[in-house]
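pls design
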């Protein structure tokens, strides 16, 4: 059972309505996470602005989705794992194995794996990474701009993970089995 209400976009007013209209125009739908974030237009707008800004960064959209899967799995966010598996597969045409591997921070590409492992380290250490952790990602070929964006992607996904775990947002994407159940 959800703990926070997903607003009906047709009944929304003011800033929330404006934001819902923008999401609807871009995606063709207002996902439940955004409908629930709409209870606070400031939260929804902040999420949309950071997400939009990162879409113009150095890291590719595919890397952003893989990062989202790594962080979401680390935070046990079923909503985000389902959403990013769907987005990664349907919109970015990522292979199912690539998406599955990202959930554990793995990739066949060495630089991508280093990025995902750094993200896992950020989550595990609550951002308190060591000089060695930063040097390892630099040694893997990540620029300082890319490292900054990895941190921002982790922060964005921690926001959505914590939000959805708190709200118990109803999953409106095809559900994905927990990795714990696949052992």
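designed seq:
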């Amino acid at each position: 059972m959800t703990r926070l209400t997903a607003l009906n976009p047709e009944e929304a007013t003011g800033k929330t309505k404006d934001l819902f209209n923008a999401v609807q125009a871009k995606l063709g739908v207002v996902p439940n996470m955004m409908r629930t974030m709409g209870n606070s237009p400031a939260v929804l707008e902040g999420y949309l602005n950071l997400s939009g800004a990162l879409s113009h960064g150095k890291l590719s959209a595919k890397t952003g989705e893989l990062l989202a899967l790594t962080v979401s799995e680390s935070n046990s966010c079923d909503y985000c794992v389902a959403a990013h598996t769907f987005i990664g597969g349907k919109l970015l045409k990522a292979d199912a194995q690539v998406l599955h591997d990202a959930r554990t921070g793995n990739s066949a590409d060495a630089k991508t794996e280093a990025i995902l492992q750094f993200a896992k380290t950020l989550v595990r250490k609550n951002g308190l990474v060591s000089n060695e952790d930063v040097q390892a990602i630099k040694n893997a070929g990540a620029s300082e701009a890319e490292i900054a964006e990895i941190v921002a992607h982790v922060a964005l996904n921690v926001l959505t993970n914590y939000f959805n775990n708190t709200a118990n947002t109803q999953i409106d994407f095809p559900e994905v089995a927990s990795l714990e159940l696949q052992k």
